[in-house]
C-alpha cells in the first residue's frame, strides 16, 4: 500500500469516527429536546423519573446533552461537509 493509499484510508477512518460522534450527539440532543418538551407541556422530567431527581446519572445525562449541544453548534459546518460528501459519493 502506498503512502497516498494509507493517507486515504486514515482519512476515511477518521470520517467514520466523526460521523459516529455526530450520530451520538444528535441522538442525545433529541433525548434532551424530548425531555424539555415533556417538562414544558406536562411538567414531567423523564430523565429525573428514570434515574432519580438530581442523581449522578441524571446529572450526567444533562451534562452530556449540554456538551452535545455545544459540540453540534461549534461543528455545524464541518458536520454538513462530512455528510454532504457522503451523499455526493453515493
By helix and strand content, what is the structural category?
mainly alpha
Secondary structure tally, helices: 4
Share of helix among residues?
over 70%
Largest sheet: none
Number of individual domains = 1
Structure description:
By secondary structure, the protein is mainly α. The protein has one domain (3-89). Helices cover 88% and strands 0% of the residues. The protein has 4 helices and no strands. Helix 1 (3-42) packs across helix 3. The relative contact order is 0.12.
Layout of strands and helices, then pairs:
Elements: H1 3-42, H2 46-51, H3 56-74, H4 76-89
Helix pairs in contact: 1-3
Can you give me a brief rundown of this structure?
The chain has one domain.
Which keywords apply here?
90 residues; mainly alpha; 4 helices
Amino acid at each position: 500500500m502506498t503512502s497516498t493509499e494509507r493517507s486515504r484510508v486514515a482519512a476515511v477512518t477518521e470520517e467514520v469516527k466523526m460521523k459516529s460522534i455526530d450520530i451520538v450527539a444528535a441522538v442525545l440532543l433529541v433525548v434532551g429536546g424530548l425531555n424539555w418538551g415533556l417538562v414544558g407541556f406536562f411538567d414531567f422530567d423523564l430523565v429525573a423519573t428514570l434515574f432519580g431527581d438530581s442523581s449522578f446519572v441524571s446529572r450526567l445525562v444533562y451534562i452530556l446533552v449540554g456538551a452535545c449541544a455545544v459540540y453540534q453548534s461549534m461543528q455545524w459546518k464541518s458536520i454538513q461537509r462530512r455528510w454532504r460528501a457522503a451523499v455526493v459519493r453515493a
